Amino acid sequence: MPSNESKLTVVGAGLVGSLLSLYLARRGHTVEVLERRPDMRREALDAGRSINLAISTRGLHALRQVGLEEEALKHAIPMRGRVIHPVQGELAYQPYGKDDSQHINSLSRGWLNRFLMTQAEATGRVRIRFRQRVTHADAAAGTLTVQDEATGETREVRDTVVFGTDGSGSAVRQAMQPRPDFQATQETLGHGYKELTIPPGPGGSFQMEKHALHIWPRGSFMLIALPNEDGSFTCTLFLPWQGPVSFDSLKTPQALEDFFQERFPDAKALIPGLVEEFFARPTGHMVTVKCAPWRVGGRTLLLGDAAHAIVPFFGQGMNCGFEDCAVLDGLLESQADWEETFSAFERRRKTNADAIADMAVENFIEMRDSTGDPRFLLEKGVEKV
Ligand code: FAD
């Protein structure tokens, strides 16, 4: 087992960094976590990436290992299948498994992140420092340059073992870029996404089937919706950036309303804030990041999206990052030091992470075309990609 004497720094208190620090603390390590954002438990943050997430077996397994699965599932809504919404006509239900026990779960990203931070701090070994942005890293030396976002002051953290869990745009990964043995590819999808809300019905009721992931497959674009605990659904519209039907073509409220009326009439009737939300909310980018090596000696290791960002269509980015934490934890038991641990970790995870990344892109095509049934598409001259 690597020494408990080492100074450990986790960069990023997102989903993966928070869970990782909890795992490390349970092994007796003292951990400092540097997070560039304010504490989301005290300040409301701007709407960012998906409001809710699908958590499935690999993610739940990682939570179970640290005794958190049961509590997380209390806040989750089981989704037992997909409900496919055609342009007109009857909905089609596609169950995920033979019976209801086979399902995925919709869970609030914000709740889960806050929960994991609190659980990590409750170990007494984790200190999360907010508004601390890592601006540079010397991955071989274990040195981090950190800017205090409140005061603008810069300081250095030295002689530390660095865990880079700072997401798809990772500063830790970028600092590894000049190393001669380091390679990274970053592929941006030609689609962006926008979140929209179906509010709860009367008395907090669900206005569509609660226990399902809803999909409106339309060929080159699609809409999906996941249920939230309060009776609402968060919808995500995936559209090409440019082309005949794209973010570029939806520049006015009228164009947007006409588009929804034609392509998603049942959803339009349930999204009263369509125009306001569409034009006020940010449009998200999606990227696949593959890189290698994920480590520098026994000093620096990348995990989660920092090592392997994937597009969301397989619902596996966070799940895969949580699995990283569980695998690393298992290796801590059997490996002698950090270098051996990091090396074994990369051997175990890299091929799997790359495979999941490729499957996620493939599943985009499967989801947006769904059954290939022309009822769903109403292409009207739109190229099917
Ligand atoms: P992040 O969540 O990005 O967290 C990184 C943290 O690091 C953040 O808190 C950030 O503020 C901090 N940080 C960044 N830079 C610095 C810096 N320089 N210094 C200090 N701190 C820094 N996955 C699923 O499993 N299921 C789903 O259903 C799902 N749906 C998704 C839907 C969408 C639309 C998108 C975009 C993604 C989805 N994902 C899903 C993927 C999932 O969101 C990511 O895989 C997951 O958030 C990765 O967690 P992370 O902790 O590695 O990175």
Describe, in plain words, how this protein is organized in 3D:
Its EC number is 1.14.13.9. Strand 19 (295-296) and strand 20 form a beta hairpin. The protein is globular. Helices cover 33% and strands 25% of the residues. Mean pLDDT is 93; it is low at 378-385. The protein is α/β, with parallel strands linked by helices and 385 residues long. Flavin-adenine dinucleotide binds at residues 11-17, 34-37, 49-50, 53-54, 133-134, 165-167, 171, 193, 236, 284, 286, 304-306, 312, 315-319, 321.
List keywords for this structure.
single chain, 385 residues, alpha/beta, FAD/NAD(P)-binding domain, 6-stranded mixed β-sheet, globular, disordered C terminus, binds flavin-adenine dinucleotide, NADP, Kynurenine 3-monooxygenase, monooxygenase, EC 1.14.13.9
CATH architecture of the largest domain: 3-Layer(bba) Sandwich
- And the CATH topology of the largest domain? FAD/NAD(P)-binding domain
Low-pLDDT parts are 378-385
Output mean pLDDT.
93
Number of domains: 2
Question: Rough shape?
Answer: globular
Structural class: alpha/beta
Bound molecules: flavin-adenine dinucleotide
Lateral arrangement of strands in the main beta sheet: 8-2-1-12-20-19
CATH superfamily of the largest domain: FAD/NAD(P)-binding domain
| Helical stretch tally | 12
If you compute it from the alpha carbons, what radius of gyration comes out, rounded to the nearest whole angstrom?
22 Å
Keywords: FAD, Flavoprotein, Monooxygenase, NADP, Oxidoreductase, Pyridine nucleotide biosynthesis
Function: Catalyzes the hydroxylation of L-kynurenine (L-Kyn) to form 3-hydroxy-L-kynurenine (L-3OHKyn). Required for synthesis of quinolinic acid.
Cofactor: FAD
Protein name: Kynurenine 3-monooxygenase
